[in-house]
Amino acid sequence: MKKAKTQHKKQDWEQKAQEGEFRFHRTNKWRQSEDFMRQTRKLFDYFGFDQESYQGKTIIDLGSGSKMRCKYFKNADLICIEPLADRFIKEIQWCDLSEASKVFSTPAELLIEECVNKADLVMSVNVLDHCYNFENIIENVYKYLKKGGMAFLSFDKHDITDEMHPLLLNEDVCQKIFNEKGFKIKHLTKGCGNILKTYGHGEYCLNYHLIKK
Question: Residue 44 and residue 116: Cα distance in Å, rounded?
Answer without folding.
Answer: 25
